[in-house]
C-alpha cells in the first residue's frame, strides 16, 4: 500500500465530490427510509410467523 499515492487519489475524489441538491438528498433519504422500513417489515413478519406457528420460539 503506497500511502502518498492513496492520499492523492482520495484528495482527487474529494475535489470531484459536490454537495447534493435538496431534491437529490430528499430522494436518496426517501429510498433509504423505504428500504429500512421494508427490512423491518420483513423481520416483523418472520417474528409473527415464528410466534404463531406451533412450536414457535
Describe the structure.
It is found in: Cell membrane; Endomembrane system. It is a single-pass membrane protein. Essential subunit of the Sec protein translocation channel SecYEG. Clamps together the 2 halves of SecY. May contact the channel plug during translocation. It comes from Halomarina oriensis. InterPro entries: Prot_translocase_SecE_dom_sf, Translocase_Sec61-g, Translocase_SecE/Sec61-g. With 57 residues, the chain is mostly helical. The protein has one domain. Helices cover 79% and strands 0% of the residues. The protein has 2 helices and no strands. The protein has helices at 3-16, 22-52. The chain starts with a helix and ends in a 5-residue tail after the last helix. The model has no long low-confidence stretch (mean pLDDT 88).
Counting DSSP H or I runs of 4 or more residues, the number of helices is: 2
Mean pLDDT, all residues: 88
- Biggest sheet record: none
Task: Classify the beta-strand content into a percent band.
Answer: under 5%
Helix content: over 70%
User: From the alpha-carbon coordinates, what is the Rg to the nearest angstrom?
Assistant: 22 Å
Total DSSP E strands: 0
Question: What class, by secondary structure content?
Answer: mainly alpha
- The ordered H/E elements are HH
Question: What best-fitting shape do the alpha-carbon axes yield?
Answer: elongated
Number of domains: 1
**Gap from first CA to last CA:** 49 Å
Show unreliable segments.
Answer: none
Amino acid at each position: 500500500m503506497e500511502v502518498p499515492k492513496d492520499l492523492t487519489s482520495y484528495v482527487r475524489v474529494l475535489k470531484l465530490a459536490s454537495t447534493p441538491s435538496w431534491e437529490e438528498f430528499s430522494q436518496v433519504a426517501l429510498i433509504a427510509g423505504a428500504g429500512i422500513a421494508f427490512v423491518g417489515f420483513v423481520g416483523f413478519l418472520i417474528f409473527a410467523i415464528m410466534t404463531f406457528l406451533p412450536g414457535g420460539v
